Amino acid sequence: MPQYQVQLKQGSNTKVVNVEGKSVPLVLDFFNYITTMKVTEIRQVLFSASDTIIPVDDFNYDGQFRTFAKSDTNRMSRQFIFPNIKRTRNENEIFQKMKECLEIDGASIHSITASLIKGSSSL
Questions:
Q1: Residues 6+ positions from 16 with CB-CB distance below 8 Å
Q2: Residues 42-95 pLDDT 10s
Q3: What is the spatial distance between Cα 48 and Cα 46, in angstroms, rounded to a whole number?
Q4: Which of 29, 38, 102, 106 has an alpha carbon 20 to 30 Å from 80's alpha carbon atom?
């Protein structure tokens, strides 16, 4: 059975609940039936690494990578923020991997601007 991640909101309170369900409409029907909170998102979980060992936080990373990227065909741009960047990665390597693996509204990434690798303040 598919796994779903359901986001619920009421006032300033936001909760995320993971469930197995028969379909998105039935999961929505279930939460509308049982809770006063509003379902704002339902996402199907396509990958879950629950059986892996989580690494110890050794603070051997830069805090985050922020950038604006632009697509080539539809001229859309989007801000990306990625946490805990390996110190062995630089801006150009990250940009090349973004072009290889990511898209903006279904279009390939063409250019990157205003990037910043922010260091970790924990050490």
A1: 5, 6, 7, 8
A2: 999 998 887 778 888 888 888 888 999 999 887 899 999 998 889 898 888 999
A3: 7
A4: 38
